[in-house]
Amino acid sequence: MTIFNFTQKSYNTLQSPFMMYGQEHRLSLDTLPAELIREIADCIPTEKQVVELMATSLRLNHHLKDYICHRNMENGNRGLLWACQHGQFEACERFLELGADPNFEPLVGYTSRRILNIAAYGGHIECAQVLLLHGADPNAKDGSGDTPLFPAIENCDAPMVQMLLEMRADPNVENEHRYLKASPLEMAMDKELEVIVWLLVEKGAGLPD
Length: 209
Prior knowledge:
mainly alpha; two-stranded antiparallel sheet; 12 helices; 51% helix; ANK repeat; repeat; Ankyrin_rpt-contain_sf; Ankyrin_rpt
């Protein structure tokens, strides 16, 4: 086991007493300054191991909470993706407060998906709202040509559709990659979603020419 494998066992080892000048001393990460704790975290190879370290102490968790978010953003921003996929609103908000890109477009499978579309697809309305409040574009298209309205309608999610429209999503957007149901209104009509059809029409949606 290396010093970087911070399981509970290795953390306990770091707390074990040692002798100096004939007296017993106890090494504890909890007593180190916050700056030194972050420098130690910089030497830990993986984010998973940093999280293991955080789990050993409330103080370490407190000092490394923002550190792990920044480190994650520097290494692909997968934490924001995970938060939006699983509806973890508070984690999503914290990533954004620390500077994560609300228009982040990760590769999911073989297609790039905007993070807002992912939240909409999962029905995670609070995550979608906080993304929009931090500057996410409600009309940006992902690699499949969809704006967030399309996955929301695909899931028959009227509250999500209503929220997106209130946040200025374009009800007349078209997806040129779709041969049928190329507009939100066409999709809603095809799925016989009366409430969503009404919401779209109320915001000025019309059928494509």
